# Entry
Amino acid sequence: MMDEKAKVLKFIDKNLFITMAEAKQEGISPMVLSRMVAAEKLYSTERGVYTSTLEWLTDPLKKYLPACTLYTDAIISGISTSLPMLRSVISGSLSRRIV
# Structure
């Protein structure tokens, strides 16, 4: 059986981010996320959003992913119209979060 840290990393490899709600759905305790941040295995990009890399910050569209992940109904001025292009840039499983 896969341990919780491995679950987190597998989820992030597939989706780029994991939210606290998604972690709970996957059976991952909040303490695991906190400990991984303390051990510098994860970054907390926004409250309740975690990732293992910060390379996306330099991408002109991917830098908006934390906001789109947390606020799926949000409209980001000048960016929301680019979301179809963003969907094609990122994995299909992540696009389920972007509406």
